[in-house]
Design a protein that fits this description.
The complex is a heterodimer of chains A (81) and B (144). With 81 residues, chain A is of the alpha+beta class. Chain A has three helices and four strands, in the order βαβααββ. A four-stranded mixed β-sheet of chain A has the order 2-1-4-3. Chain A is globular and about 35 Å long. Chain B is an alpha+beta fold and 144 residues long. In chain B, strand 3 and strand 4 form a beta hairpin.
Chain lengths: 81, 144
């Protein structure tokens, strides 16, 4: 299944990308997605343990199954205010 | 935006007097305003501006949830949460939280809750821009 990943803040800066596509096995979890991101972008690998996965409406549990064709946001630690 | 809540993420300067007027219209006994401003000195380094970025749709959804939680905890007449994005110069407001209630105690408590939860959960990020031109993302917290 194809997943669109959106990068923000430090993840966007380091990868040089706002978003990109990943091809993942159907039924895999967010943890597999984070591993795939870390494999493709080695400079991001060390940051993946502190990233939350979300869609545009809410945070998701990182170990929940990913829906096919979804767009997922990778949220690094937040620092608003 | 409901009549009792003003939630906004804006690239423009925050006009605090507009928010205060909105809160005063509740005709309660207390209006509590928190203004978060860009700090000049952090650990001996001189900041000239902060650059804010957000995941807009998720940030607005999360702000709405935080406001709803506050409304269920305290008898809030009106509430305002406005965060700025883009470049914010030293001394300018990056975030303003305001709560109107009948009595002062709950306005303080709700205001503190709102800013604390915003900082923990809302997908907004800031980068320090120092006077020597270097930049650095501020260490944040992973939303729980």
């Amino acid at each position: 299944m194809t997943i669109t990943v959106e990068y923000y803040a430090i993840l966007k800066e380091i990868s040089g990308l706002s978003s990109e596509l990943f091809e993942l096995p159907t039924g895999c979890t967010g943890i597999s997605l984070l591993a795939a991101v870390g494999e493709r972008h080695q400079k991001l690998a060390g940051l993946m343990s502190s990233v939350r996965i979300a869609n545009s409406a809410a945070y998701l549990s990182n170990d929940s199954k990913i829906e096919p064709d979804s767009t997922l946001l990778l949220i690094p630690p937040v620092s608003g205010g | 935006m409901s009549q009792s809540a003003w939630i906004e993420i804006t690239g423009n300067r925050i006009v605090i007097s507009d928010l205060e007027a909105f809160l005063r219209e509740a005709e309660g006994g207390a209006v509590n305003l928190f203004v978060g401003t860009t700090r000049r000195v952090t650990d001996d380094r001189i900041t000239v501006e902060l650059s804010y970025e957000c995941a807009r749709e998720l940030a607005l959804a999360e702000l709405s949830r935080i406001v709803s939680e506050a409304q269920s905890k305290w008898p809030i007449l009106r509430v305002a949460v406005v965060h700025r994005t883009g470049f914010v110069a030293v001394g300018e407001a990056s975030v303003v939280i305001g709560v109107a209630t009948a009595h002062r105690a709950e306005s303080f408590e709700a205001c503190q809750f709102l800013i604390d939860e915003l900082k923990k959960r809302v997908p907004i990020w800031k980068k320090e821009v120092y006077e020597d031109g270097s930049t650095e993302w501020v260490t944040g917290s992973t939303p729980s």
